[in-house]
From TrEMBL:
Enzyme class: ligase
One Pfam match: tRNA-synt_1b
PANTHER family named in the record: TRYPTOPHAN--TRNA LIGASE, MITOCHONDRIAL
GO BP term (any one): tryptophanyl-tRNA aminoacylation
Any one Gene Ontology molecular-function term assigned to this protein's record: tryptophan-tRNA ligase activity
Statement: the UniProt record of this protein carries the keyword Membrane: no
Cellular component annotations (GO), alphabetically ordered: cytosol
Keyword field contains Nucleotide-binding: yes
Gene3D superfamilies: HUPs, Tyrosyl-Transfer RNA Synthetase
Species of origin: Candidatus Karelsulcia muelleri
This protein's UniProt keywords: Aminoacyl-tRNA synthetase, ATP-binding, Ligase, Nucleotide-binding, Protein biosynthesis
Protein name per Swiss-Prot or TrEMBL: Tryptophan--tRNA ligase
Length: 315
């Protein structure tokens, strides 16, 4: 039986994209007992590449954990840990940096995109994929659950694993498992906090309503098939309902369809929203869960770390 790893950055409250793109599908697999070990990572070091998210990093990590628990994660069944609690990950980042050509990192599309939109680029933005390779390889998980936009990062992890394995066979070569297509946000681009296009499913109802009404739609409601496919409301709704049903709602008009979608989401996530509220106020419980995860993780990674330090003659 394979092991599974997935990770979410601590950039605030997890939004609808996280819940339907990563959290729910992972919990579904865990409940089906398809994997031997399951690693759930809260990537609070990856978050640091964006200044805006440094300030509330600790609280934001709790929010991610609270969302996992609210959606039904049984933390006893998994190894759920916070990246910064495992300094061995950053140790690997350095070893891996020593063998990976930096020119390749400059070609990574997430880096190129960042470069076109920002004047100042810190080193961590460039080495982001190496830190992710450290996350992935340290777990020795065979299956990595990621969004489509992370495939290039996974490819880098595979390259590094192969390179080190040529010296000594230490690492498993990981494979990506992609669950859904990218979950689109209110503007039709990938749902992401930094793009300000999220549906913040754990926030106040008023806020959710505002975000749904922000969904950019076309001037008139539409029944032409090709226009429908590019419609944002249609695409977001499609994650929950069949095409026929949505078309019916859209045909009455966008205002109506948005109202309807809002009520649908509130009732669908009623339990999760309530549980989220419960967990987020239990900081010491959340911290305890993370400590348990870190302890389990530390034990698992020791033999691997010993081997890697040997490879780099740093034992
Ligand atoms: N970079 C991933 C993202 O932005 C998050 C992440 C960090 C991750 N480390 C990981 C995902 C390891 C899977 C495995 O979505």
């Amino acid at each position: 039986m394979d092991n599974l790893l997935t990770g979410i950055k601590s950039t605030g409250r997890p939004h609808l994209g996280h819940v339907i793109g990563i959290i729910s599908p992972t919990i579904f697999l865990i409940n089906k007992e398809m994997f031997h070990k399951q690693f759930i990572l809260i990537a609070n070091l990856h978050t640091l590449t964006n200044y805006n998210f440094i300030k509330n990093n600790k609280t934001n990590s709790y929010k991610i954990l609270a969302a996992w628990l609210a959606c039904g994660l049984d933390y006893k069944k998994v190894i759920c840990y916070r990246q910064s609690d495992i300094p061995e990950i950053t140790e690997l980042l350095w070893f891996f940096s020593a063998i990976f050509p930096y020119n390749r990192l400059k070609l990574v599309h997430s880096f190129k995109e960042y470069k076109t939109n920002n004047k100042i680029i810190n080193t961590a933005t460039l080495t982001y994929p190496i830190l992710m390779a450290a996350d992935i390889l340290i777990s020795k998980a065979e299956i990595i659950l990621v969004g489509k936009d992370q495939l290039q990062h996974l490819e880098i992890a595979r390259k590094i694993a192969k390179k080190i394995n040529q010296i000594k066979r230490i690492f498993t070569i990981p494979k990506a498992k992609i669950f859904t297509k990218l979950i689109k946000g209110t503007d039709g681009k990938k749902m992401s906090k930094s793009k300000k296009n999220i549906i913040d499913i754990f926030s106040k109802k008023k806020q959710i309503k505002k975000q749904i009404f922000k969904i950019k739609t076309q001037n008139k409601f539409l029944n032409e098939e090709n226009k429908l496919l590019t419609d944002n409301l249609y695409n977001i709704y499609l994650n929950f309902a069949g095409s026929k049903k949505i078309k019916k709602k859209l045909n009455v008009g966008y205002q109506h369809a948005k109202e309807e979608f809002y009520s649908f989401l509130i009732s669908k996530f009623k339990k999760e929203r309530k549980l989220y509220k419960y967990y987020i106020n239990k900081k010491s419980k959340l911290e305890k869960i993370l400590k348990i995860g870190a302890t389990k993780m530390k034990e698992i990674i020791q033999p691997t770390m010993k081997q890697v330090r040997n490879v780099f003659d740093c034992s």
